[in-house]
């Protein structure tokens, strides 16, 4: 059962930082709209600004992208890693709920002082993650189940700041879901995948996918498109509902 907006109460407001048109929010946006939450965007690939104030934001979602926390403005003029890390720290210190996806998770780790690094394996496609003991205890991730097939599209992975906990791993990456605080989470995996989103990613990464056979955890495009993403989307919604419940309790 998800959170209902009570009469006279303001809905939650979710702000998305989107780095590329093909790194869209997918099921994150569907979840927010289905709950009656308001949304806003910083589409940095269109040179849109980051929010000047966090006052109206309840949940900050930093999406993925081909950049890294070390990418300079000279290398990518519309991506300001330093500004995003500063905003992430401000959101954390203000008690906001924060979720980083792929690059977003790496930016959270870097903002908290733990540099990202290369993943042991490149992962592109749908592969299972396994919850750790900490993940099975965590009130937000325990409903994912001990093992869940989710989307992947990465070369790198987030680091581990002090006091963070690894909640899920995969055979190709040891830091798939990280809890930084009770309200701040990093997901290297992509539970937000939809057929439309995956189609855009495939078009953007066609050259890599043509060499899928060279990697242990890279699937061909036709295999990825065969998956029904609805179940992982449902599990993502459950995770986000629980995060909002925790945020609301903290806020009140």
Look up the CATH topology: Rossmann fold
Proportion of β residues? 25-35%
Helix content estimate: 25-40%
Overall pLDDT metric: 94
Oligomer: single chain
Q: What distance lies between the first and last C-alpha atoms, to the nearest angstrom?
A: 20 Å
Order of helices and strands: EHEEHEHEHEEEEHHEHH
The number of distinct helices, counting runs of at least 4 residues, comes to 8
State the CATH architecture.
Answer: 3-Layer(aba) Sandwich
**Largest sheet entry:** 10 strands, mixed
Shape descriptor: globular
Content-based structural category: alpha/beta
The structural domain count equals 1
Whole-angstrom Rg: 17 Å
> Uncertain segments of ≥5 residues (pLDDT<50)?
none
CATH homologous superfamily annotation: Class I glutamine amidotransferase (GATase) domain
Description:
With 252 residues, the chain is α/β, with parallel strands linked by helices. The protein has a single domain, classed as Class I glutamine amidotransferase (GATase) domain (Rossmann fold, 3-Layer(aba) Sandwich), CATH 3.40.50. It is 30% helix and 25% strand. Strands 1, 2, 3, 4, 5, 6, 7, 8, 9 and 10 form a ten-stranded mixed sheet that branches. Strand 3, helix 2 and strand 4 form a beta-alpha-beta unit. Helix 2 packs across helix 3. The longest helix has 22 residues.
């Amino acid at each position: 059962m998800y959170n209902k907006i009570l009469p006279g109460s303001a809905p939650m407001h979710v702000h998305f930082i989107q780095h590329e048109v093909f790194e869209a929010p997918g099921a994150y946006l569907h979840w927010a709209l289905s709950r009656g939450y308001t949304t806003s965007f910083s589409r940095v690939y269109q040179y849109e600004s980051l929010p000047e104030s966090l006052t109206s934001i309840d949940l900050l979602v930093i999406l993925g992208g081909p950049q890294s926390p070390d990418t300079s403005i000279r290398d990518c003029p519309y991506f300001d890693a330093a500004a995003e890390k500063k905003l992430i720290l401000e959101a954390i210190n203000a008690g906001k709920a924060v979720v980083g996806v792929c690059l977003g998770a790496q930016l959270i780790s870097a903002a908290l002082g733990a540099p990202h690094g290369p993943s042991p394996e490149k992962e592109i496609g749908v592969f299972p993650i396994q919850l750790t003991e900490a993940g099975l205890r965590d009130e937000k991730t325990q409903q994912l189940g001990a093992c869940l097939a989710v989307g992947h599209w990465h070369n790198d992975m987030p680091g581990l700041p002090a006091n963070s906990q690894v909640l899920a791993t995969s055979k190709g990456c040891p830091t798939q879901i990280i809890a930084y605080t009770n309200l701040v989470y990093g997901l290297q995996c992509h539970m937000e995948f939809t057929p439309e989103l995956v189609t855009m990613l495939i078009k953007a990464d066609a050259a890599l996918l043509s060499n899928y056979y060279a990697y242990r955890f890279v699937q061909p495009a036709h295999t990825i498109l065969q998956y029904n993403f609805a179940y992982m989307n449902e599990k993502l919604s459950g995770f986000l509902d629980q995060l909002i419940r925790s945020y609301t309790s903290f806020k009140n």
